[in-house]
Design brief:
By secondary structure, this protein is of the alpha+beta class. The protein has a single domain, classed as Glutaredoxin (3-Layer(aba) Sandwich). It contains five helices and four strands; from the N terminus they run H-E-H-E-H-E-E-H-H. Strands 2-1-3-4 form a four-stranded mixed beta sheet. It is globular and about 35 Å long. It starts with a helix and ends with a helix.
Amino acid sequence: MPVMERIQAEVEAHPIVLFMKGTPQFPMCGFSSRAMHALKSAGAGEVHTVNVLEEPEIRANLPRFSNWPTFPQLFIHGELIGGCDITLELFESGELQRIVSEAAAQ
């Protein structure tokens, strides 16, 4: 399957997807770690993660797919939410909790 189709399939198959460096248990970058922590703190139970360090094709092509240059990248219901800074801002405002609870309810 071509890489752009693989990315699309990942984003469509799970309500919450975080493309990150490393894994939730062993993040390989502070931004990925903070984004994952914000999601968990917001009550996200099931977060599907993709370790872009183990998926070089996805790492190379995701910025073109999403039109977002950096990692991590958070998608909820197929829509790009943003990177670490936006995720943290949403968490601090309480908006991430609402988005996550709506995603879990669907």
